[in-house]
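step=encode ok
step=design start
structure_in=
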């Protein structure tokens, strides 16, 4: 099993920071923000030394919880400051992006850091639609069309035109092309039937996140079934599972940390926005079954315990979900306990990582 550390650009908020989304821009402190990015580099170097396989970044907007609105900028910043660990961009969010720009920037990054870039393309959350004024009813189709265009821009050797429903270009011929041919390792991110279908049809990996083993196993099974229909079989490294983990020296200490975390108030959406988002986003599903959007809710903790229990939970994840790669946040992104997170990372690197490589 391979392990990725999910780096959020941790902004340590003052106690009086408004707990709402979007957070008022006037609450931002420049020095705290600069320290957040210095911390990104320190943690990336630390997990590289510990033996983690990847460090991942994502795309979120208008909030200190994940201070990485541009995953390409984040990845380039980290790639220039670490030596060998792979950098996984899990966004960018395709329906709010220019697909040609995404294809060009990722090809640049793959050329600058050859063999070290991993790409995840996704639809995004309802919050991101509001950030860039996207009609949620169009998001699924825009995502699929945008991903099709990115893949073609990477692989088509001759200039071509694109006149789609949502994207139109008279001519496309990107320079540079990806260093890794035909393109860097690429995943479609999402638990939905549509994400599984797209990934299977294009022989891409799948990225699953923040659900129980049972639900994620259902999505993984759907993906593998679609792959079989398209005549190929995915391997363990074709399935990523992103999740939160609480790791402590003992099971009891981890359970106490989980109890403290569960008492925290959620990071709510501002009044009036939550209802609008929930009403407009009606297509989310897990392997075809409808599920409500998680708007302002607290994400679940999938792994909790001391090292021995965590190893067994990871083994169960490997067996039930089939994931060969886990992408882990070892502290909830909404907390500012950086020291506790660093201790958990070190404990994972020393007491868990050496025991799961052959899973």
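sequence_out=
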């Amino acid at each position: 099993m391979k392990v990725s550390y999910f780096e959020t650009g941790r902004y340590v908020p003052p106690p009086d920071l408004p707990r709402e989304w979007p957070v008022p821009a006037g609450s931002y402190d420049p020095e705290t923000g600069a320290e957040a990015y210095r911390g990104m580099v320190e943690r990336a170097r630390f997990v590289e030394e510990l033996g983690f396989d990847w460090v991942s970044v994502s795309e979120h907007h208008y909030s200190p919880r994940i201070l990485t609105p541009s995953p390409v900028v984040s990845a380039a910043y980290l790639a220039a400051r670490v030596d060998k660990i792979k950098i996984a961009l899990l966004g960018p969010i395709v329906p709010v992006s220019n697909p040609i720009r995404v294809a060009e920037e990722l090809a640049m990054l793959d050329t600058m850091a050859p063999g070290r870039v991993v790409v995840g393309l996704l639809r995004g959350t309802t919050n991101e639609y509001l950030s860039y004024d996207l009609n949620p009813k169009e998001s699924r189709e825009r995502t699929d069309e945008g991903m099709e265009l990115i893949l073609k821009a990477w692989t088509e050797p001759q200039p071509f035109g694109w006149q789609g429903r949502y994207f139109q270009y008279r001519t496309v011929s990107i320079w540079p092309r990806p260093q890794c041919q035909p393109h860097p390792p690429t995943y479609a991110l999402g638990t939905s039937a549509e994400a599984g279908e797209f990934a299977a049809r294009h022989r891409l990996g799948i990225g699953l996140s923040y659900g129980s083993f049972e639900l994620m196993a259902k999505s993984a099974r759907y993906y593998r079934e679609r792959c079989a229909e398209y005549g190929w079989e995915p391997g363990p490294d074709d399935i990523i599972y992103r999740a939160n983990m609480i790791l402590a020296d003992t099971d009891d200490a981890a359970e106490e940390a989980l109890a403290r975390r569960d008492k925290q108030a959620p990071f709510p959406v501002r009044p009036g926005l939550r209802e609008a988002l929930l009403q407009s986003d009606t297509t989310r599903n897990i392997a075809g079954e409808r599920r409500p959007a998680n708007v302002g809710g607290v994400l679940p903790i999938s792994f909790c315990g001391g090292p021995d229990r965590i190893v067994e939970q990871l083994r169960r994840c490997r067996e039930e979900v089939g994931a060969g790669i886990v992408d882990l946040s070892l502290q909830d992104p909404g907390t500012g306990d950086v020291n506790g997170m660093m201790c958990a990372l070190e404990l994972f690197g020393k007491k868990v990582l050496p025991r799961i490589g052959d899973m």
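step=design ok
step=annotate ok -> Residues 2-356 form a domain with the TIM Barrel fold (CATH 3.20.20.30).
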